[in-house]
Amino acid sequence: KQSMLSGVIYGMSCLADDLILRLKLKLGASVKVIGTGGDMVLIRPYCRRVDIHDKDITLRGICLLSQYIS
């Protein structure tokens, strides 16, 4: 079980790093990457290309949007 969990965490962090690398090559290296969500806390130590970790940014954005609409 532990080996499977380690594989998932390392696999997802490598997947995220490669996706970020491809996007930065296409968009420009100055792009900042924000890792979001509760599971990011698990893979963040192994993601080399995530610049900022903010688990609540999506919820804050929805809150701001609802205030703007009201």
Classify the oligomer: single chain
The whole-angstrom Rg is 15 Å
Series of H and E elements: HEHEH
H/I helix tally: 3
Form type: flat
Q: Residue-averaged pLDDT, rounded?
A: 91
Cα-to-Cα separation, first versus last residue:
48 Å
Tell me the structural class. Answer: mainly alpha
Biggest β-sheet: strands ordered side by side in the sheet: 1-2
**Unreliable segments of 5+ consecutive residues:** none
Give helix % range: 55-70%
Strand elements, count: 2
How many strands, which pairing sense, and closed or not: the largest β-sheet?
A: 2 strands, parallel
> Beta fraction of the residues?
5-15%
Protein model, in words:
This protein is mainly α and 70 residues long. 61% of the residues lie in helices and 6% in strands. Strands 1-2 form a two-stranded parallel ribbon. The longest helix has 26 residues, at 2-27. The protein is flat, with a radius of gyration of 15 Å. The mean pLDDT is 91.
List the helices and strands and how they pair.
Blueprint: H1 2-27, E1 34-35, H2 40-43, E2 52-53, H3 57-69
Parallel strand pairs: 1-2
Task: Put the structure in a nutshell.
The protein is 61% helix and 6% strand. The chain is mostly helical and 70 residues long.
What would the keywords be for this entry?
70 residues, mainly alpha, two-stranded parallel sheet, 3 helices, 2 strands, 6% strand, flat
